[in-house]
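## tool: complex_structure
## caller: assistant
## args:
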Amino acid sequence: MNPQEILKAHLCKTINLTEEEFNYVFSHFKPKRFKKGEKIITEGDIVHDEYFVLSGCLKTYYINDNQKMFILQFAMCTWWASDYDALYNGARAIINLDCITDTEVLCLSDVDREKLCTEFDQIAYFFRWRSNRGYVASQKRLLSFMNNDAKYRYEELLSMYPQLYNLVPKHLIAAYLGVSRETLSRLYNE
Amino acid sequence: MNPQEILKAHLCKTINLTEEEFNYVFSHFKPKRFKKGEKIITEGDIVHDEYFVLSGCLKTYYINDNQKMFILQFAMCTWWASDYDALYNGARAIINLDCITDTEVLCLSDVDREKLCTEFDQIAYFFRWRSNRGYVASQKRLLSFMNNDAKYRYEELLSMYPQLYNLVPKHLIAAYLGVSRETLSRLYNE
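## result:
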């Protein structure tokens, strides 16, 4: 599928847009390509855009004072990523966004999203639905983090997203689970 | 302030409604009073409503197979609470919602929220904004959970919400931080 078809299929799972409406909406998205390892958002940035992934894989992560990395999110095809606190609230970015693999995205600015939400009730509905989903997923992950051990969370992650197994290096999966690489290796071998 | 004034002040921080519009919106909220300890949502329930707190304090929590309690959220005056996975997605509740103190709420059904969102762009905007905020807060809490020890998270919680100190028993604050009551007592005495 081309970028237009991927976005259209994604939106039309939730809302109805005519061909003409979709084409107008699509004209606000800017295609971009990034290389493996390239940084899209760096801690301290002002953030204007969010990114809809077409191919490849992104990660959002935080580096603490001891240089330990915590991964908040992976983002694969049809996932969205940004520093949403910075994007919504005009705060400086506290997280980083970069590319685990070569990645193709569609980039939507905060200004254009709000414009489209004003112009189309269906688009406003889509973004409300998306935020609701993100909130629920985030609460579930928090609960799993509090309640389950790393082995359980590792199996949960790979059963939900089996494609991560091949796409994402093991030390990054460890940083997502909040365990050391050694602990993760032990889980692999059990 | 009476219930009407509390909700109006809350909505009008984010959106503009005329007196007439607000009165119409308000007519969809049902006032309810619950006693300390009373259950509003029980695991397994079908959930139709969300709750806007006017006075008192609620908690949402999960009980695992070993009967250990994990608190997802406290909800005080002007906070919203429900099992949002159950509410948005029609799933059975996996969490519980009950009253830490006698509590007064305004209850809004899923059907009425969607009706109001269709009737007023401003209300749709409000709920999108609220979900965005919830998502960002949830991501921050997850990050804090991964990155900070219990002492740091305890101080962070009480500096953000000093009123919790008097409103919420210490064993519930421990269940929110994901530590034992004994660990929390030690932090108190340090």
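## assistant note: The beta strands of chain B are 30-34, 39-41, 49-55, 58-63, 69-75, 80-81, 96-99, 103-109. DSSP finds nine helices and eight strands in chain B. Handing back to user.
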